[in-house]
Amino acid sequence: MLYSLLKPLLFHFDPEKVHELIIHIAHLSPQIGKLTGYKHNQRLRLKIGNSIWNGPVGLAAGLDKNAEALDFFSHQGFGAIEFGTVTLQPQLGNDRPRIFRYIPENSLRNSMGFPNHGLLTIESRLSREKIIPFGANIGKNKESTPEESLDELGTIVATLNDKVDYFVVNVSSPNTPGLRSLQEPDYLRKLFCELQKLTSKDLYLKIAPDLEIDKVIELAHLAHELKLTGMIATNTTIMPAKGPGGVSGSLLKLKARKVHETLLNLKLPIEVICVGGISNVEDIKSIWRMGGKAVQVYTAYVFEGPDLLKKINKDIIQFLDKNNLIDLNQFLSLPLEDRVKILDQP
Ligand SMILES: Cc1cc2nc3c(=O)[nH]c(=O)nc-3n(C[C@H](O)[C@H](O)[C@H](O)COP(=O)(O)O)c2cc1C
């Protein structure tokens, strides 16, 4: 409610400045998060990998890059929070302006290039006590070679291991030169084998929506072969006509949906966390219909604020009530045909 009143004013200013202001306030006064009055509902809890998420909607990477507002976001109705992308060394990222709004299309474009405070500063902000699972999204520094990045990512994983529930390897941002070319089996095999020596936490691979479908399938089989917990699909999409960087929100939705469909249709025993243009309970139901469980959001949260999660979670509870389901876990444990029958009911 408050956010919808403030939004016309906030959207008047540079998106990154507004973002920094909100993160700053949330960092200084984490209690503000509680003012939204959201209480986690046990009926929405579900197991994703080895973590118990507080609900099916996670916060996607990039909003709390530096883990500055984890307390705040823990009270927003998210099921889990992914911070980062964290790199070993701090870096400034690309030149500003580097976030752009497309208001009629509920979309954003960013060309940030992993600006972040670096591993050690971010690690110092993490406490072991938390009410919600945290994931660390990790990436390589801009100047590092693929060979150097193996050690870099290993150091990040070893350092954060006791403080997070899962790791996401981000080789799919369009804003670090050459990064997407690391979505190659040889590199990924080497990397994940190294990381698995350093952690037993859940490991995910985050992929781009711009990959050929054959490549998506190849990477899914690789994730399964390497015994990763799963994949996070997708990152932002390139749309050169709009400018450099990656586009998110409604303009990404169809492209991301194709990747979700492809991954879920494979029915591999890996988690597929769907992200890209998700903004309401109907979007989530369409993921459930394909066999998915958890999703993440970023852009819709920027456009709708805290009410987004309140609304989605309330709609899910109503759906459970209407269908006499004890909890979400019960629904998501049903065979797919039974799930679809329930979803098809008017
Ligand atoms: C401004 C901005 C910064 C982002 N930064 C990151 C990042 O650092 N690491 C990452 O893996 N994804 C990043 N993302 C991508 C999101 O995590 C997500 O995959 C993408 O935005 C699609 O979801 P959405 O349509 O709900 O926004 C960023 C997205 C935006 C809009």
Describe the structure.
The chain has 346 residues and is α/β, with parallel strands linked by helices. It has one domain: Alpha-Beta Barrel (TIM Barrel). 41% of the residues lie in helices and 16% in strands. It contains 14 helices and 13 strands. It has helices at residues 2-10, 15-28, 32-35, 70-74, 119-124, 146-160, 185-198, 213-225, 250-265, 281-289, 299-304, 307-322, 328-332, 336-344, and strands spanning 46-48, 51-53, 57-59, 81-86, 99-102, 107-110, 134-138, 166-170, 202-207, 230-233, 246-249, 271-275, 295-297. Strands 3-13-12-10-9-8-7-4 form an eight-stranded parallel β-sheet. Helix 7 (185-198) links the parallel strand 8 and strand 9. Helix 6 runs parallel beside helix 7. It is globular. The relative contact order is 0.14. The mean pLDDT is 96. It binds flavin mononucleotide. Flavin mononucleotide (FMN) binds at residues 60-62, 65, 84-85, 99, 108, 110, 112, 114, 137, 170, 173, 206, 235-236, 248-249, 252, 275-278, 297-300. Flavin mononucleotide binds next to strand 4, strand 6, strand 11 and helix 11.
Task: For the structure shown, list the relevant keywords.
346 residues, alpha/beta, TIM Barrel, eight-stranded parallel beta sheet, three-stranded antiparallel beta sheet, 41% helix, binds flavin mononucleotide
